[in-house]
């Protein structure tokens, strides 16, 4: 379900991304992607805007569509599929596999899923229905019926014959049991190197037994990632219902990793258990810097001391302006840091992200500014004060979006951890801009 990602592929992705963006801006052919791996295409899709995403989807072979979607963040895959026209969506649904239906059932049309089940064999339909009875974070959702139960006393020759009978139903793992229960598993490929008389009990490798109702992130702690096993038995009420692949576990861990803002570079200033003295020194440095920047914001307020004295309402409302800018900026900052951590944000697509965040800030800033302005007018009875705070919030939202996008990227260039330092710089920008705009307008129109 996944492509093998080689180091060379990872190194060339920023260049590939820049090339795709350049081609899309000049309306040139994107057919060069047709020869790229699903992993490369998925990486580009995560890093571009919706119009370019759709252009890429139009370019890649229909048969590759679901392989690419399996490598995307779930929400990205859902958004891309929802953006397709009915005709394009139907073309791709015609190539969907059983495992893809299970993986993406939550955003596939329910009518299609029902019709798909009708075209499958009774065994396959039963398996899909059973899988869909679990939520998408449970082991049972992804258990596959591609296993063979065998007695520990069975010989290799007998099992080989049994595998030949199941040539149309591939067996990924042989689950070995005896009178006491499951003793381990055997990779079918192992049988190729053994004599016919060898007993399975001599080949069985002890395996963790997974429960169907466990969360995927829970069972990731039970399995070994040393490569010795790639399939694990899944039990329901003590009986084997299927097997779970290491690939599925890895994808689950990847999805969990995407939900956390993790510094992609190994040069993060602080890890989870950095020694106390070191962590205190690192954080203390930025606290001191934050203190200095707070004095900068206070200095801006001091410039308008006379204005604040004459219009007390300005002093009351200043925290509102700063708070709204800080919240808007922190949202943008989180998006940018996440993009850097996942290797989705580069110099080539930074402009697109800035434009997107500015548009969002403009919309939210105008809406929130209007709402807060109306509230201020209702409380203080001043149209001018309502308009001033509305304009200040709108402008500060734009400043927050711009700085929230550029600050982590700039800090990254200077090998400074954006997760630690980004909020300090951002707070300074939103406080200074917010106070400056709000008090300047107050000085001009209210005094």
TrEMBL record:
Keywords: Magnesium, Membrane, Transmembrane, Transmembrane helix, Transport. Its main location: membrane. Pfam families: MgtE, MgtE_N. The keyword Ribosomal protein does not apply. It is found in: Membrane. It is a multi-pass membrane protein. Residues 36-139 form the Magnesium transporter MgtE intracellular domain. Belongs to the SLC41A transporter family. This is Magnesium transporter. It comes from Vibrio ulleungensis. The lineage of its organism: Bacteria, Pseudomonadati, Pseudomonadota, Gammaproteobacteria, Vibrionales.
């Amino acid at each position: 379900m996944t492509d093998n990602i080689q180091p060379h592929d990872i190194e060339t992705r920023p260049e590939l991304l820049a090339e795709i963006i350049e081609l899309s801006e000049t309306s040139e052919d994107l057919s060069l992607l047709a020869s790229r791996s699903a992993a490369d295409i998925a990486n580009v899709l995560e890093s571009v805007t919706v119009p370019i995403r759709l252009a890429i989807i139009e370019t890649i072979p229909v048969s590759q569509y679901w392989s690419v979607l399996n490598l995307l963040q779930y929400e990205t895959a859902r958004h891309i599929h929802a953006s397709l026209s009915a005709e394009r969506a139907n073309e791709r649904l015609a190539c969907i596999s059983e495992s893809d239906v299970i993986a993406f059932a939550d955003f596939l049309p329910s009518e299609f899923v029902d019709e798909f089940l009708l075209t499958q064999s009774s065994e396959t339909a039963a398996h899909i229905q059973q899988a869909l009875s679990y939520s998408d974070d449970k082991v049972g959702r992804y258990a596959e019926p591609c296993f063979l139960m065998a007695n520990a006393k069975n010989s290799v020759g007998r099992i080989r014959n049994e595998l030949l009978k199941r040539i149309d139903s591939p067996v990924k793992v042989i689950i070995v049991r005896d009178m006491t229960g499951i003793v381990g598993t055997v990779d079918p490929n192992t049988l190729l190197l053994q004599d016919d008389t060898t007993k399975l009990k001599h080949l069985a490798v002890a395996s963790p037994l997974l429960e169907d109702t466990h969360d995927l992130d829970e069972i990731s702690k039970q399995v070994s990632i040393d490569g010795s096993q790639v399939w694990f038995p899944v039990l329901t009420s003590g009986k084997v219902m299927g097997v779970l692949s290491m690939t599925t576990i890895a994808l689950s861990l990847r999805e969990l990793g995407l939900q956390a803002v993790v510094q992609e570079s190994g040069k993060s200033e602080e890890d989870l258990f950095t020694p106390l003295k070191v962590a205190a020194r690192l954080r203390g440095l930025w606290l001191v810097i934050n203190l200095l920047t707070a004095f900068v914001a206070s200095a801006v307020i001091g410039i308008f001391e006379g204005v604040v004295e004459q219009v007390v309402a300005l002093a009351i409302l200043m925290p509102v302006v700063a708070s709204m800018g800080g919240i808007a900026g922190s949202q943008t900052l989180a998006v940018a840091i996440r993009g850097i951590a996942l290797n989705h944000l580069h110099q080539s697509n930074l402009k697109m992200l800035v434009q997107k965040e500015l548009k969002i800030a403009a919309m939210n800033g105008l809406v929130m500014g209007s709402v807060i302005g109306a509230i201020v007018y209702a409380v203080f009875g001043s149209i001018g004060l309502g308009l001033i705070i509305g304009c200040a919030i709108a402008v500060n939202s734009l400043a927050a979006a711009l700085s929230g996008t550029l600050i982590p990227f700039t800090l990254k260039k200077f090998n400074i951890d954006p997760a630690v330092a980004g909020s300090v710089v951002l707070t300074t920008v939103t406080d200074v801009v917010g106070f400056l705009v709000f008090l300047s307008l107050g000085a001009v129109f209210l005094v």
